[in-house]
Design brief:
Shape: elongated
Strand order of the largest sheet: 10-11-15-14
Structural class: alpha+beta
Number of strands: 15
Distance between the termini: 101 Å
Helix content: 10-25%
Largest sheet: 4 strands, mixed
Strand content: 25-35%
Length: about 375
């Protein structure tokens, strides 16, 4: 079968730069590499892509190919560096795994892990804030060995097996050439260091688990589900790295009278019919004490009144919310004979005479089922 044009194989034109050729090759190599693509024909396509790249990425080979195509009179064209030889596999290895330059230094400073703590607050504690102490379990740097993991007076040694990289390269010959696999060094467990004499306090780990007491200043206006970041109070870092952070998540309990929506507070106040009909001045509970509220005559049930500045403070210190008071007219369940007579007089004066119901709801329901 005739070979395809190398430029068509890589999907570039004959004026493509070396970088464009390399970019096209890497894209196709990822797609057809046998370790990644198990479909039938992927191996052949990968060989074709590799041969095209070997040719077009080499200036001398590219010049020959541009002149003679696949019929190079020098006969050695391609040769040992052709499609059957994966001497350039290191480039593919770098592409998939970051290469030697991309290795993570196991001895580099690393920040510690973040921690989360859930704090329960009463409704008013969240409104006004509080200063409190909490106790959390966390890993801290071992004071005995100062985090080295080695017995005082000794020091960790560089792992002789991986040279301190924390990784081992395992070479394997395959039909596609020499393949290099990288794995964590099993001698130093990826740390790049060997500790002969371990610290007896931390058993060579460099960290110990303790319960730490931390002071938390809960800001006024914090709401349910919000969190507070306490910098530097997480797990200890590694190799001298900074500690992580502590995130305190707040769980605020409900209040029996007030409800909260953001910075606004809501409540419901029961009033009698005479109060809403004639008007009244009442006392309303707020978060900071009782205040007087004038209820105009003729106020309807469900009417809302706003008390400005009586809500929750903004957690960032930007102002204060309002308190919303909703009026609910309460109907008395039992009236004395005198009260009933007064209500009859009122009904008559207002142009209506109600048909008084002597039986309760369940009495009526019972009769309805009996067919009375």
């Amino acid at each position: 079968m005739a070979k395809r044009d190398f430029y068509d194989v890589l999907g570039v034109d004959n004026n493509a730069s070396v970088d464009e050729v390399k970019k096209a090759y890497r894209k196709l190599a990822r797609k057809y590499h046998p370790d990644v693509n198990k479909e039938e024909g992927a191996e052949a396509k990968f060989k074709e892509v590799k041969e095209a790249y070997d040719t077009l990425s080499d200036p001398q080979k590219k010049t020959h190919y541009d002149q003679f195509g696949h019929t190079d009179p020098n006969q050695g064209f391609g040769g040992a560096g052709g499609a059957g030889d994966f001497g350039g596999f290191g480039d593919i290895f770098d592409m998939f795994f970051g290469g030697g330059g991309g290795r993570r230094n196991p001895n580099a400073p690393r920040q510690g892990a973040d921690l989360q703590y859930t704090m329960n607050l009463e409704f008013k504690e969240a409104i006004f804030g509080k200063d409190t102490d909490i106790e959390i379990p966390r890993e801290e740097t071992c004071e005995t060995c100062d985090g080295s993991g080695a017995k005082p007076g000794t020091s960790p040694e560089t792992c002789s097996h991986c040279g301190g990289s924390g990784q081992l390269n395992v070479e394997q010959n395959t039909p596609f050439g020499r393949v290099v696999n990288r794995r964590v060094c099993n001698h130093c467990e990826g740390t790049g260091k060997m500790i002969k004499d371990k610290c007896t306090t931390c058993a060579g780990k460099g960290k110990i688990r303790k319960r730490k007491t931390i002071n938390i200043k809960v800001p006024a206006g914090i709401d349910h589900g919000q969190q507070l970041r306490v910098s530097g109070q997480g797990e200890a870092g590694a190799n001298g790295g900074p500690p992580g952070d502590l995130y305190v998540v707040f769980n605020v309990s409900d209040h029996e009278f007030f409800e909260r929506d953001g910075e606004d507070i809501y409540c419901e106040v029961p009033l009698t019919f005479p109060q809403v009909a004639l008007g009244d001045e009442i006392e309303v509970p707020t978060l900071t004490g009782k205040v007087k509220l004038k209820v105009p005559a003729g106020t309807q049930t469900g009417t809302n009144f706003r008390l400005r500045g009586k809500g929750a403070p903004n957690v960032h210190g930007r102002g204060q919310g309002d308190q919303h008071v909703q009026v609910r007219v309460v109907t008395p369940k039992q009236l004395s004979e005198n009260e009933k007579e007064m209500m009859r007089e009122f009904a008559g004066m207002s142009g209506g005479k109600p048909e008084e119901q002597q039986d309760g709801f369940f009495d009526k329901l019972r009769r309805a089922f009996k067919g009375d």
